[in-house]
Design goal:
Number of domains: 3
Strand order of the largest sheet: 5-6-7
Radius of gyration: 22 Å
């Protein structure tokens, strides 16, 4: 895809335009900058999470799909394995897909506003997924046994509405201990879901090569391909360190 005919440009530059299909003038200034400076898209010129950031990924995705743009390395993985640059609707709100977001203290406090409503939300999830109630924590089982008539009398919509009235949008699993969330599109259900992952202990080990290698081996990171699973994102946390405001001298994968 080299316009000069040398056949080596694509091997030297992370982003290459096929000028036989489209002129360079169609590119945004941001994409031109990446191309002119041989800068990978993963080393973004725009602030992560900004409108320009998502627009540039969306532009690159559209051009790549039409074979107008050639990318390689981490850029290629982003365009082929994620939906970064696309948006979906989650609980009536437009959210960015495959973009990790660090939970705020306000979100954590909201999700944990009352102990009773956390149990109701957990029971709701078990009922929705058809999971056996005996797998619930003992305290939650006792709560369900005490209020089974009232809870079973509510259909899924009513349970959702009741939870929203009292605790708002729950942003963490009832088990707790997760530091981040990411919106993804489930390829099986075609619905938007939230995946929570990461912990404080993991952050401290990003800059430790031995710890990174041990983590990758222990969790079989090379084979974690399902982005609807927390393990997929935990294995890739170092890559998103700068996006999440974590101090790191390592920008690759585990």
């Amino acid at each position: 895809m080299c316009s000069c005919g040398c056949g080596t440009c694509s091997a030297q530059k992370p982003v290459v335009l096929n000028e036989s299909l489209a002129p360079k003038q169609i590119l945004s200034e941001g994409l031109k900058y990446h191309m002119d400076n041989a800068l990978p898209l993963t080393e973004h010129v725009f602030r992560a999470g900004s409108t320009e950031y998502f627009n540039l990924w969306a532009e690159a995705r559209a051009l790549y799909a039409r074979n107008i743009l050639e990318v390689q390395g981490d850029d290629l993985e982003v365009l082929t394995e994620t939906d970064l640059g696309n948006f979906g609707m989650f609980e009536g709100k437009k959210v960015p897909l495959d973009f990790p977001i660090e939970l705020t203290e306000e979100e954590i406090d909201e999700a944990y506003s009352t102990y009773e409503q956390r149990m109701i939300n957990q029971i709701k999830r078990f009922k929705k997924e058809g999971l056996p109630m005996f797998n619930l924590p003992i305290k939650t089982q006792k709560f369900y046994a005490k209020h089974q008539k009232e809870i079973d009398a509510l259909d899924e919509t009513e349970i959702n509405e009741e939870a929203k009235k009292k605790i708002g949008k729950p942003m963490r699993d009832s088990s707790g201990g997760k530091a981040y969330k990411v919106y993804v599109k489930d390829p099986k259900t075609k619905k938007i879901k939230t995946v929570r992952f990461g912990s404080g202990g993991l952050k401290a080990k990003i800059n430790n090569p031995k710890a990174r290698q041990a983590f990758a081996k222990r969790h079989d990171c090379a084979n974690k391909k399902d982005k609807t699973k927390a393990s997929y994102w935990s294995c890739r946390l170092p890559r998103y360190a700068k996006l999440l405001g974590l101090k790191s001298n390592f920008s690759g994968f585990w």
